[in-house]
């Protein structure tokens, strides 16, 4: 008779950010284990709260599925001797399968006879197999682990109880000296100890003890409470999905409430108010129908509505204290000047090997100047960009950023505006931190984009120059995110400036500094490899295959938006049958290139018309290809190269390249090298696995 199973891990409060992934791991690992153990069941459901992870499995069979299995042994020639008797190999095979030679039969596979036996594997009682959940529970991974007491197990938080029931029977195992039982616990303050008679009652008895085990149900109740307040009060509550997910994982029994703060705090920048509410207190801000921030907030209590007014007053008191501090910092900061804060940058270390923040700012200013020249910005934009770079970090020294570190740049924009800076400069201070995440928002202004690239490339080149290249999952300076940001900005802006030029500007600057750093050629190599990986990451998001990616970044990343266009085009062409003869011609050419040093082509040494035609068409193509490349027209550039395919095929059909006449041979190789240089300027097509697509 099938029975239900409930497995629950009782823990001290888990960090909200760990819960969803851990719940999914538990569910997936449980389902996989049951399948591998041949234990059939109807359905499996997972649950989670800050204090528990659980899976409930419906209608679990009492026995493993019994199976008939065919076991293959050695060939007949090995299984029998010359007299037709069973050899030791055959006898050993059957013994290992729990059979005798009488059970052997033959089957032919690919023209060869093998011996086989059939095995009947009787299913074991499910109860004997379910202690596998000990291994499943121990295998769950978390972002950060801890040990407790004298235990060797590493886990996100200490395990305090374990529920493991198959029907009404306890599944016996132990983890970190905690034994399984049928005892769980309700809400920490409102609930009590619970004895489970069977798995079916799991959710209902927890609910009676103020625990809603289903996270989706908790989220639904939170949203329901928010919408009720919206209708009642006539305002709007923008629901941040990330915050909602976090809040549902902070409570076991949610009750939504409305709190307020004094209107005098609305003089603070809205970002400060919202950050205080969302990031520090996990409150939802409230806005009017017109989008204006109101002096209210929405909180979610972990419990029922008993004495809710006291809870509201307590939360208001906490927020009021934080906002009072913010208002004090805001008013004190405005008493100073930008120069005052810039001077303080001299006393704060950016990185011990790379000097102070002020020294970093000086480097960013230099790189910004060079970038504005390369981009051909007008005099006004150049001045604005340089000024933005000069004051880009001043807000790091303010009281407000010291209290609200996540608002660096945002506060800089507010204060720069207050101190009378040009609005473009003020906005660039905020924008130069963008994107803040790999796929985050990009700078809107040219000035912001220039300073953003300058700041990021300085950090990347600086860190790699002094040996701080990211390894594995370790990237304490966020170099991968910043490199991705540079490439995304270059792509979005469609700037005709290669990544290598930007790196060159920065490396040249670093060569003038008196800091200990690696050899320039080693830094150049490491930078190229580092950015290759970031470019590959972005190109993969465009569904470009890995070999195509390698083909377009083999030599350099180049002008990135053009590199993207070439990659997307080649990814399409590899699947077109009409392109096959073109790629065959171009790849055949590349395979023979570089057999000699680069030489001039001497037309007087041509012996066949096919040589002359190929050389003539190559010369005609050079200017056209150069124009297409300068215009960043990937489609036209590849089309021009494609026109060389027929004369290339004719050349190889009518000429022996490696002829005995060394002058003729070298002249033909020189011609091949010339054309190959044109092709590899577009991409190294020899790196693409064309054959697998035809």
Automatic annotation (TrEMBL):
Broad enzyme group: ligase
Localization terms from the record: Cytoplasm
An annotated Gene Ontology molecular function: ATP binding
Lineage: Bacteria, Bacillati, Bacillota, Bacilli, Bacillales
Binding partners and assembly: Tetramer of two alpha and two beta subunits.
Family: Belongs to the class-II aminoacyl-tRNA synthetase family.
Location, primary (coarse class): cytoplasm
Protein name: Glycine--tRNA ligase beta subunit
Organism: Oceanobacillus zhaokaii
Domain DALR anticodon binding: 582-679
GO process annotations (BP): arginyl-tRNA aminoacylation; glycyl-tRNA aminoacylation
Gene behind the chain: glyS
Keywords: Aminoacyl-tRNA synthetase, ATP-binding, Cytoplasm, Ligase, Nucleotide-binding, Protein biosynthesis
Enzyme Commission (EC) number: 6.1.1.14
GO cellular component, one term: cytosol
PANTHER family listed in its UniProt record: GLYCINE--TRNA LIGASE, CHLOROPLASTIC_MITOCHONDRIAL 2, GLYCYL-TRNA SYNTHETASE
UniProt catalytic activity: tRNA(Gly) + glycine + ATP = glycyl-tRNA(Gly) + AMP + diphosphate
């Amino acid at each position: 008779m099938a029975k239900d199973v409930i497995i629950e891990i009782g823990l001290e409060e888990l960090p909200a950010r760990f819960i969803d992934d851990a719940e999914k791991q538990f569910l997936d690992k449980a389902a996989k284990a049951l399948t591998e153990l041949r234990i059939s069941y109807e359905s499996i459901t997972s649950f989670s709260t800050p204090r528990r992870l659980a899976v409930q499995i419906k209608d679990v069979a009492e026995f493993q599925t019994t199976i008939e299995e065919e076991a293959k042994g050695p060939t007949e020639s090995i299984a029998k001797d010359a007299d037709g008797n069973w050899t030791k190999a055959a006898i050993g095979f059957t013994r290992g399968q729990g059979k005798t030679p009488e059970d052997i039969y033959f089957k032919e596979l690919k023209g060869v006879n093998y011996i086989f036996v059939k095995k009947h594997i009787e299913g074991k009682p499910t109860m004997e197999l379910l202690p596998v959940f000990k291994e499943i529970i121990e295998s769950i991974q978390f972002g950060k682990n801890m040990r407790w007491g004298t235990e060797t197990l590493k886990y996100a938080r200490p395990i305090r109880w374990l529920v493991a029931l198959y029907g009404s029977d306890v599944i016996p195992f132990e983890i970190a000296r905690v034994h399984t039982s049928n005892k769980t616990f309700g809400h920490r303050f409102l609930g009590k100890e619970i004895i489970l008679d069977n798995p079916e009652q799991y959710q209902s008895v927890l609910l009676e003890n103020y625990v809603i085990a289903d996270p989706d149900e908790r989220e639904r109740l939170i949203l329901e409470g928010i919408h009720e307040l919206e209708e009642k009060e006539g305002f709007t509550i923008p629901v941040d999905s990330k915050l909602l997910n976090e809040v549902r994982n902070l409570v076991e029994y949610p009750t939504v409430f409305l709190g307020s703060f004094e209107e005098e705090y609305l003089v603070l920048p809205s970002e400060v108010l919202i950050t205080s509410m969302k990031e520090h207190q996990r409150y939802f801000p409230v806005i009017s129908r017109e989008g204006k921030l109101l002096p209210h907030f929405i909180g979610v209590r972990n419990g029922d509505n008993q004495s809710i007014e006291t809870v509201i007053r307590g939360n208001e008191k906490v927020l009021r204290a934080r906002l009072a501090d913010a208002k004090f910092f805001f008013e004190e900061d405005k008493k100073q000047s930008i120069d005052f804060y810039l001077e303080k940058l001299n006393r704060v270390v950016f990185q011990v090997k790379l000097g102070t923040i002020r020294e970093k700012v000086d480097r960013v200013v230099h790189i910004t100047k060079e970038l504005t020249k390369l981009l051909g910005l007008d005099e006004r934009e150049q001045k604005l960009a340089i000024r933005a770079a000069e004051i880009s970090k001043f807000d790091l020294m303010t009281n407000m950023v010291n209290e609200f570190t996540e608002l660096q740049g945002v506060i800089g924009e507010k204060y720069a505006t207050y101190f009378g800076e040009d609005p473009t400069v003020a906005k660039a201070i905020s924008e130069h931190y963008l994107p803040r995440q790999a796929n985050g928002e990009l700078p809107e202004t040219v000035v912001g984009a220039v300073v953003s690239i300058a700041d990021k490339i300085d950090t990347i080149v600086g860190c790699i120059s002094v040996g701080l290249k990211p390894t594995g999952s370790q990237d304490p300076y966020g170099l991968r995110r910043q490199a991705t940001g540079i490439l995304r900005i270059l792509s979005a802006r469609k700037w005709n400036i290669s990544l290598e030029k930007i790196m060159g500007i920065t490396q040249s600057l670093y060569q003038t500094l008196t800091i200990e750093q690696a050899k320039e050629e080693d830094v150049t190599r490491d930078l190229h490899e580092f950015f290759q990986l970031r470019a590959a990451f972005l190109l993969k998001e465009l569904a470009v295959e890995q070999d195509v990616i390698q083909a377009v970044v083999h030599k350099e990343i180049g002008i990135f938006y053009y590199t993207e266009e070439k990659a997307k085009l080649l990814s399409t062409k590899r699947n077109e049958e009409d392109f096959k003869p073109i790629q065959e011609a171009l790849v055949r050419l590349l395979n023979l290139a570089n057999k000699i040093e680069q030489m001039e082509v001497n037309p007087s040494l041509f012996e066949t018309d096919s040589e002359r035609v190929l050389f003539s068409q190559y010369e005609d193509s050079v200017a056209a290809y150069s124009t297409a490349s300068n215009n960043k027209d990937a489609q036209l550039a590849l089309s021009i190269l494609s026109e060389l395919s027929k004369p290339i095929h004719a050349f190889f059909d009518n000429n022996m390249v490696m002829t005995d006449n060394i002058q003729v041979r070298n002249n033909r190789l020189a011609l091949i090298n010339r054309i190959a240089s044109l092709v590899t300027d577009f991409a190294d097509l020899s790196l693409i696995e064309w054959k697998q697509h035809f």
